[in-house]
User: Fold this.
Amino acid sequence: MEKCLNMLKKVRKVLLSKNNVIGVGAGMKQVGLERTNKPSVIVFVEKKMVRSNLSRKEIIPEEIDGVPTDVIEIGRVRLLDARTDRSRPARPGCSIGHYKITAGTFGAVVRDLKSGELLILSNNHILANGTDGRDGRAKVGDSILQPGSYDGGVVDDKIAELLRFWPLFKHEKQTDCPVAAGVAQLGSKIVHLIRPDYDIRFMRINRGDNIIDAALARPVSRDVISPEIIDIGIPLGISEAGVKKKVMKSGRSSGLTSGDVVAIDVSLQVDMNDAGEAGNFSGQVVSDMASKGGDSGSLVLDQEMKAVGLLFAGSEKYTVFNRLENVFAKLGVELA
Assistant:
């Protein structure tokens, strides 16, 4: 590889000056669908051309002073901001939200067990503005925007309407509560809901009122959504998230991240807003998978591409998600 890198330094400018060449580097030559162990100068082109259609100056030699070359068609390279762009069909992993909130993540395409129609799955606090069903924060039929309003979504970006949600119950926040022994090892007492302005505390809770933070939206038409998760693909079923199990998610803000399950059957108290209202959660799963504000609603999968949870909270080091089995049972849906 050292010889290849030295050669790359010598020919970099010359190669980059050729028409259609948009990048160069060093790597292993690919033959067919297999990557060999042969160090090569990699030449990235926007589109591969028939050799006979190229001028002598544009042709990339098969080797340069004994160092092989490999021409790879890479297409146009651009900043990957599609997660916050308006996209049709929209895919899980992109920005979405109730018209009154900032933005969260489109989690998955699911099928209603009764009607058979395809629906959008995300959190209650993303699709239904964190409502308990009686507070007027949201109602069935409300507009769902893609992208969310924080990412520029406006009335014309309506992609769905709120169909149903599982209520989020709140109560007066308690202070100075001891950290639950079962989660003290996480090394953090305070984590943040994956949405700006919210935070949660791991605390001792005798009884959890909330099992899930989830809601469903009906797309305005079937062709505006796709079940293929950005950077992941289509889930291959559902499974359980056990301790030490490796998991991953594709979210609006931090993209594709992965980690291990740290704790299961977690009870915690969630600060819902700055007014001191909180909600008790139980039966949750905690992972060291990275997440950021705006990742709420992401579907969590294991390495076998099976869905295990619905992300709704996290911190700089930990992420919290609902067990998917509970989400599906409460909402009456299955994977599309």
The longest helix spans residues 2-16. Residues 82-335 form a domain with the Thrombin, subunit H fold (CATH 2.40.10.10). The CA atoms of residues 97 and 148 lie 5 Å apart. The chain has two domains: 2-73, 82-335.
